[in-house]
Amino acid sequence: DMADFNNTYALAVRRDFAAEHGLQTLEDLAELTHDDPDLLFGIVYEFLERDDGFWPMSETYEFSVEKRQVKTMEIGLTYEALDKKQIDIAMVFSTDGKLEKYNLLVLEDTKNFFPSYNLAVTVRKEVLESHPEIEEILRPISVYLTEPIMIRLNYLVDAGGYEPDEVAEGFLKGLGLID
């Protein structure tokens, strides 16, 4: 079974910026792009070049954006630039722990433009055939691994100073899947 979270592309803003401009969705942002020609976007270069990237998304939502408003940068820098008010909108990944660290609002993709990247537990066939009990043991992972939980787990690694294996072990122990 697939998990109930989707780690896809998204656009995020600071919460104060969202409140000031009445932003909740990408459609709200589209309206703002027509009113404010000085908005600055922080976008990862790869996202600019993709068929499901920034410019096709801009067309789908009818953004009014010029190339001068788009700054390319590494993903980690988009969060810092947004936090420091060097940009207004950042391309993010929807389950990144830095969303929590910087208290950002992910704008809702009301037109379902971005593809879904849902997690699914994968086990090699020969392992499952040798240990059929694994299927039942692993089933709760996809049930309990929601988007808010995944953001929190990523936050513990990104900002909390924990190692990924420590966070995973704590999550699995919390579910009672391991001792």
From TrEMBL:
Molecular function as annotated in GO: transmembrane transporter activity
Query: Which InterPro entries does the protein's record reference?
Result: ABC_Gly_betaine_transp_sub-bd (IPR007210)
Any one GO CC term of the record = ATP-binding cassette (ABC) transporter complex
Mention any Pfam family matching this sequence.
Answer: OpuAC
Domain ABC-type glycine betaine transport system substrate-binding, by residue range, is 3-173
Q: What is this protein called?
A: Periplasmic osmoprotectant binding protein
